[in-house]
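Aim 2, interim progress: modelling of the manganese (II) ion-bound target.
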Amino acid sequence: MEEKKNNPSKELREKLLLIRKNGYNVLSDEEIAAGFEFAEGYKSFLDSSKTEREAVVSALEILTAHGFREYKKGDELKPGDRIYKVNRGKAILISVIGTTPISEGVRICAAHIDSPRLDMKQNPVYEDNGIGYLKTHYYGGIKKYQWTTIPLSLHGVIIKADGSSVTVNIGEDENDPVFCVSDLLPHLANEQMSRPAGKLIRGEDLNIIIGSRPFRDDEESGAVKLNLLNILYEKYGVTEADFVSAELEAVPAFKAKDVGLDRSLIGGYGHDDRCCSYPALMAAAESETPVHTSVTVLTDKEEIGSDGNTGLCSAYLKYFIEDIAQALGSEGRDVLSASECLSADVNAAFDPTFPTVSESRNSCFVNKGVCITKYTGARGKSGTSDASAEFAGRIRRLMDSKGVLWQTGELGKVDEGGGGTVAMFIANLDVDTIDIGVPVLSMHAPYELISKLDLYSAYKAFSAFLAD
Ligand code: MN
Ligand code: MN
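Predicted structure of the complex, ligand included:
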């Protein structure tokens, strides 16, 4: 038998070139099956957690089932303790106290649980030509035309005049009604279709239809609005004045579903950033006592710039770390300076239908694993935390040593646009920080797509980091 010839160029290629393979070609059948199983839990989380408040409630259920307790400043802490703290119902901090002194730093995993949507104005209810509506102000970066002619559900809270609170969730149950923003028929859209896409639907056109049946005993105008307010009064005991103290959010009413004949993808609303916050939550919930204390934060307000007391521009993460540092006998600032952070947020997956906006050598691709992003920002790296080569090297070694499927990617071509994450706000606390997350197709659309293997890779990455 002829001796197999060795192939020097093949060997050299493997040694010198960076080749990122499709996960289906490198992961074992067991791992792929585990990834698909993980996606089932994720889909239920997506369906029950369409707003930041609902994501906090879902997180609390999972954490309670995994032995976590609420932490209050001043509580004693010891290695192995599993704690959480909720910030105003819209963000949550989770920590597992490690075995090494906290002065050695904590491992922070940060993801956000708010997503683009339509928020109700403070005086939202009106009637126009026999149709009842809610006025909205969009939240986050959306293509407004995508939010018409899809079923919407209504979520949030209303604080009544007496201070009591009602929780609203209409449109998710199979038997619930849904709501909708109308669009113009093509037959009459000559003028509309000649506008630039950003003005096809204007902000003040995003009016949500909530009814059309007038209050029966009233012949006067406004009977539809009166009837709708009456329905709300009977259901929730609220009046029109109560909307002033409400946070009502309209989101797509679709359920998360497998996409594709091979079921390799998941379609759903709010993958950005639940496809990172769910893996981060599960990594924290399922973690054993780590070496370094872990801190997982699921934050609010990322989509509008992270300002406000539930966003990561506020001091709430810093205060939490200071509080647990103090309880364990260390200075908060020393702990922060020794800490590391994975800023867990999505990146734009290369879209073969729109290849020109990406630079394919530096894009992330569906099914090639969780994407490590050294810097985000726009116009010459403005508005980002550019991770150091040393920290990128440290995370790269960690991912490789734990067999995590990962890739790198930049958000689109230089000067094509850009975007930011919470990385810079945490890095600004003197924490080594790098961005990492799941590639998403159609990001910020009402129905986004991700890959199951990439989702699972994020879970493996966060688990490896929190345990380290
Ligand atoms: Mn995001
Ligand atoms: Mn986003």
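Residues 117-252 form a domain with the Aminopeptidase i, Domain 2 fold (CATH 2.30.250.10). Residues 112, 272-273, 302, 345-346 surround manganese (II) ion (ligand 1) (CB under 6 Å).
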